[in-house]
Specification:
Blueprint lengths: L3 E3 L9 H10 L2 H8 L4 H10 L3 H13 L4 H16 L7 E3 L6 H9 L26 H14 L5 E2 L5 E6 L11 H9 L11 H7 L3 E2 L8 E2 L2 E6 L2 E7 L3 H14 L12 E4 L4 E3 L5 H12 L11 E5 L11 H9 L4 H9 L8 E2 L5
Parallel strand pairs: 1-2
Antiparallel strand pairs: 3-4, 4-7, 5-6, 7-8, 9-10, 9-11, 11-12
Helix pairs in contact: 2-4, 2-5, 3-4, 9-11
The structure holds zinc ion.
Length: about 350
């Protein structure tokens, strides 16, 4: 299964005929835009492949004076990557992709999108918790925020935006409210369900249902994740635990023919207490157990055995048709700088590890 990712800086390793093809297909001004903030090494690949010294001198000058803004530079880079993608040598690659700006990204998150099919096992006939479908959503939301705050869980704010992601978890039958912490606890210790023949690990990955413990209620429901612009709720997607998010993203790419995240063993990272390195020798069972080890490490495990995280090999933009996965991935991105890299589409270049710790 293919799965290699090509980021813009990989142009440095592209063969001369690939660079020559870009030079032929793109106007000099656009090439200059794409290279404006790139290293001398990458620029040199282009100078070298221009037909004459005069041409390379011209490109150098153009790069110096070019003052294109970031969105234009991103467009020019993506045009280059699209030209490379046509080359047969790269047919099994996925190419770096990104949102053009924070404004575009915020617009994407707050725009009403086509509802997605629920994620996880048995989700389709399970009732959902819905802010927009509820009479007293505002009041329940305030209570949830209060509860989260009392349990020291701050609402996740997407860096460089005023967008907050807040769990809206209200039982649709009895109205009982659940905090982020309660959801987290449940997802790590779900009520055992014999339907999961492959055992607890499979359930942890696939069972996104919350079980209501309200008196006489005892139903499963699907909590939602509210996209709130400053103080105004704008959108609602399904709330997923980190393992469901991981699993759903892996399934999404697998259907496209790519093994990503834990399905590529090269992404599994462990810590030996001093450094973090790739864990290459995991067998199938260990790979499945990996998520449990990360999110719910046994307290007896010595530090040397602790699995540390998953090297990220997906771009948010690739998940554009799945806002649920984008929002949930962001809420589990652990550190603000990782969320920023995800939004800017530079996370693979920066070698970010995600899902490292249960927040
Ligand atoms: Zn209930």
């Amino acid at each position: 299964m293919g799965g290699k990712v090509f980021t813009f800086s990989d142009i440095f390793f592209a063969k001369d005929d690939v660079i020559a093809r870009i030079i032929k297909a793109m106007p000099q001004e656009e090439i200059a835009m794409a290279l404006r903030r790139e290293s001398t090494e990458i620029r040199k690949r282009f100078y070298k492949n221009l037909p004459s010294l005069d041409d390379s001198q011209n490109l150098k000058e153009e790069i110096k004076v070019n003052d294109a803004e970031l969105p234009e530079r991103i467009k020019a880079k993506e045009k280059m990557l699209a030209i490379i993608a046509e080359h047969p040598e790269y047919k099994n690659y996925r190419f770096q992709s990104r949102f053009l700006s924070f404004e575009e990204f915020t617009g994407y998150l707050t725009k009403k999108s086509k509802p997605e099919k629920p994620y996880g096992f048995a989700a389709e006939d399970t009732p959902s918790s819905s802010f927009f479908g509820s009479q007293n959503g505002e009041q329940a939301l305030e209570e949830i925020k209060k509860k989260n705050k009392a349990e020291e869980h701050e609402s996740f704010r997407i860096p460089n935006t005023k967008i907050y992601l807040i769990n809206y978890s209200v039982c649709p039958k009895c109205g009982k409210i659940y905090s982020f912490k309660a959801l987290s606890h449940h997802y790590l210790n779900p009520k055992p369900d014999p339907t999961f023949k492959k055992g607890k690990e499979a359930q942890l990955r696939q069972d996104a249902r919350m079980f209501c413990t309200g008196a006489g209620c005892k139903i499963h429901f699907l909590p939602s994740l509210l996209v709130v612009d400053d103080i105004i709720p704008k959108n609602e997607v399904q709330f997923l635990g980190p393992m469901h998010t991981l699993n759903a993203i892996e399934d999404y790419f697998e259907a496209l023919g790519y093994a990503v995240l834990t399905r590529d063993v090269n992404n599994l990272l462990k810590s030996d207490g001093v450094t973090t390195r790739v864990f290459r020798d995991l067998d199938e069972d260990a790979r499945h157990g990996f998520a449990t080890a990360v999110f719910n490490p046994p307290s007896t495990s010595p530090p040397s055995k602790i699995l540390k995280g998953i090297r990220n090999d997906v771009f948010l933009k690739e998940l554009e048709s799945r806002p649920t996965l984008i929002n949930n991935l962001l809420q589990y991105s652990v550190k603000p700088e990782i969320a920023l890299n995800l939004i800017q589409g530079v996370n693979v270049e920066k070698n970010d590890a995600i899902f490292g710790k249960w927040r």
